[in-house]
Amino acid sequence: MQALVLEEKLRLSLRDFPIEREETVGPHDVRIKLHTVGICGSDVHYYTHGGAGIFQVKAPMILGHEASGTVIETGGAVTTLKVGDRVCMEPGIPDPQSRATRMGQYNVDPAVRFWATPPVHGVLRPSVVHPAAFTFKLPDNVSFAEGAMVEPLAVGVHAAIKADVKPGDNALVIGAGPIGLVTALAALAAGCARVFVADVDDTKLALAAGLGPITPINVSREDATAAILKETEGWGVEIVFECSGNARAAAGVFDPLAPSGRVVFIGSQQGDVAYNVGKAMVREARVEHVFRYAHVFARCVAMLSSGAIDVKPLITRRFDFADSVRAFEIAASAPPGEVKMQIELPQ
Ligand SMILES: [Zn+2]
């Protein structure tokens, strides 16, 4: 019964961890045997930096929050799931009594307990107990690997909803990492005619170009705004999704934006970003921010099942659980061309 434990900054170990034996199944919970867990940028950041902002790793913590698995036990009051169901899980558990939760915005509940965010343990371990309300059944035609992609996909779908995508809009996605690419897929599924994706990695841009009506822009060679204005008869894009976390890119979001356009900030920023309010004003730009997602897991599963969204090309590498320390070392080296790496647990 081993777990992948971040002991401290830059020190991971695969070892027995007591939490497995301590978790009990409440009436509204299920116990899930983990199958596939994706490696997220946040997991890698905790490994390389020992924390992020206010969340610092002060005690050994199990990593991983992008997960799928099989229900192996159900609480007495659970009616929506049964033993043997294949599922994916929404990793944040809000306080049902909190004001934000009661408003429907449970993702911004300050008391939310989110897997692999200190001090809450993640799920790179054999099993976990989770509320049935945050556990979603996978149809037969959605694999465990795709199920473990629902969590990052949810960020893109939430962003597309915030952007108010209208049929025929053009969008720019800045950053071709996993979140940038799921955002591009979500924007297309929401009705965008065309999506431009800007990055500096030619391998990722080539992958992006194969996902649909996506025009790659390598910003190390080409100015994104100039390219977009040329392709849109000087109008610009109705939506800019900032997924790079790069401060300079974030400051320039209004340049390629069409009049009355929307900007959604998705990539996390380490410091302050100064932006040109004048450029935003003359466009009457609307600026949105997302923090994770709310109410979108079932939509994501439905789109994977129907074929409206295909995330399989984004899964570029798989590791056995026994190799998970090496998987994190590789992920931390940010190899070019890799998008989503996943770890498979022994079944
Ligand atoms: Zn994630």
Automatic annotation (TrEMBL):
A GO term for molecular function: zinc ion binding
Family, per entry: Belongs to the zinc-containing alcohol dehydrogenase family.
InterPro entries per UniProt: ADH-like_C, ADH-like_N, ADH_Zn_CS, ER, GroES-like_sf, NAD(P)-bd_dom_sf, SDH-like
Keyword annotations: Metal-binding, Oxidoreductase, Zinc
Entry protein name: Alcohol dehydrogenase
CC cofactor: Zn(2+)
Domain Enoyl reductase (ER): 15-334
Pfam families the record matches: ADH_N, ADH_zinc_N
